[in-house]
Design goal:
single chain, 192 residues, mainly alpha, Aminoglycoside 3'-phosphotransferase, Chain: A, domain 2, three-stranded antiparallel β-sheet, two-stranded antiparallel sheet
């Protein structure tokens, strides 16, 4: 959590007890969540996550979205909630997409892993705060962009535009496929 403050991504941090897991933060008055259709806000948020990804910080924690999906799948099966048409097909499609992203051999980096509008707060002075770091760890950077897009109402063209704005250049076909695959995997995770 100290890295978020050092990188000026979350200046609310005061103290965290690593053994007990509790955290003390500054209270931010009169904030709003990021508006997915405010171009300036989105660019600032993408700059923040880009800054995190490029900070060369190796976390002792990792975040593997498929491991979490597998745990959730096990719980769902125990409860007998996996019995609807196309459930198995949907699972296998998501699994195949995740496997394809892993074959891309994208370098893992420190990620927020819950990068969406409700975790990006903006105060009255237009100061941004990236909060809720409980899932942070080394992961594929597409995990953050996938979450950002999956939690929005973006069309496919708008999603492609977000990927372009995050990369600060036109993505290659393989990069675009990688990021869009992550949008699908994250959407499956959110569905579960």
């Amino acid at each position: 959590m100290g890295y978020a403050k050092k990188l000026e991504l979350d200046n609310t941090f005061i103290y965290m007890d690593p053994l007990e897991g509790w955290k003390i933060s500054h209270y931010i008055q009169d904030v709003q969540s990021l508006n997915y259709y405010n171009h300036s806000q989105v660019d600032t948020a993408l700059f923040m996550i880009h800054k995190l990804h490029n900070a060369n910080i190796d976390s002792k924690y990792s975040f593997n979205i498929w491991d979490i999906i597998e745990k959730m799948e096990g719980e769902i099966q125990k409860q007998g909630r996996d019995k609807f048409q196309d459930y198995d097909s949907l699972y296998h499609d998501a699994e195949k997409l995740f496997e394809l992203t892993e074959h891309d051999k994208v370098a893992k980096c420190l990620c927020h892993c819950n990068f969406c509008n409700i975790n990006i707060l903006i105060d009255q002075n237009n100061k941004f705060y990236l909060i809720n770091w409980k899932y942070a760890g080394n992961s594929d950077p597409a995990c953050n962009i996938g979450m950002f897009i999956a939690c929005s109402n973006y069309s496919l063209d708008e999603a492609k535009n977000i990927i372009h704005r995050y990369l600060l250049r036109e993505p290659s076909i393989s990069e675009l496929s990688h990021y869009l695959a992550y949008v699908s995997v994250i959407s499956y995770y959110l569905f579960l």
